[in-house]
Design brief:
This protein is mostly helical. Helix content is 79%, strand content 0%.
């Protein structure tokens, strides 16, 4: 329970009681990361259902609300890492200089440009998916949507345990040093359980999302080591946001094909 509270306190804006950090709770904090994703996914799925089936809204306002809702729940912690990473990646400098850019609190042009592109694509895909829910495909859409937020956090947690670290300090390094292989096993089991549940409701869309997530995971492994010498908290945020966007886009494409 303490690990769950720490996970929600760290990776969301959901009010939580104060608890003291200790070695055991920090070790299993990553195991609770997918539960944070389940909460966000459930909120997002509920909003989709309300807008499409109760209020019958498929307009731009509804799409914008669905786009910013995950950012509001997380407090933008992952989006901040995404924007910092975009600045560092597009600097085309050495690994050491890229890591220095990640620490720089100033905002660069590529961070702004990347965020604009990100939100435009996200709003567009979200707007289109609302029309599918109006056609009576509620379960076939909202379950895979919720699954996206769980899957990306299962994979992110695995990266914390398994990937090499670019720095010995920082929040990610501190979490990783407490975690062990048991955490990775628990995350894999959770990922398989949530994948099976989503596949029961919608097998094709679930497999598309799972495949997209695994491709993003492999790309993250190669990119983080090649460009930065390992992963960091900012890179983890970039992975999370990129995976979320690409899964949403692939869900849109899959739904278009299956129409």
């Amino acid at each position: 329970m303490r690990a769950l509270i720490i996970a929600f306190s760290t990776y969301s804006r959901v009010p939580m009681p104060h608890v003291n950090f200790n070695e055991k709770s920090m070790r299993y904090c990553m195991c609770c990361f997918p539960i944070v994703g389940l909460f966000i996914g459930a909120c997002e799925a509920a909003l989709y259902y309300l807008f499409a089936s109760v209020f019958h809204m498929s307009g731009m306002f509804a799409a914008c609300v669905l786009t910013v809702a995950p950012v509001l729940i997380t407090g933008g912690i992952h989006l901040d890492g995404y924007m910092d990473t975009m600045d560092a990646k597009h600097s085309y400098k050495s690994k050491e200089e890229k890591l220095a850019i990640l620490k720089d609190p100033h905002l660069g042009a590529f961070a702004v440009i990347s965020a604009m592109v990100y939100f435009v694509l996200y709003v567009g895909a979200t707007y289109q998916m609302l029309t599918y829910l109006e056609d009576g495909n509620v379960i076939k859409m909202v379950v895979p949507i919720a699954y996206i937020f769980v899957l990306e956090r299962v994979l992110s947690g695995l990266s914390v345990v398994l990937f090499p670290k670019a720095k010995k300090d920082g929040m990610l390094a501190a979490t990783a040093c407490q975690a062990d292989r048991k955490v990775a096993v628990i995350l894999v089991i959770l990922g398989l359980i949530f994948t099976a549940v989503s596949a029961i409701a919608c097998p094709v869309r679930t497999m598309v999302i799972a495949g997209t997530g695994l491709i993003c995971f492999a790309r993250y492994r190669v990119m983080s080591e090649k460009l930065f010498g390992g992963t960091t908290g900012d890179l983890a945020g970039e992975f999370l946001q990129t995976t979320e966007l690409l899964c949403i886009l692939m869900l849109f494409v899959c739904s278009e094909i299956m129409k």
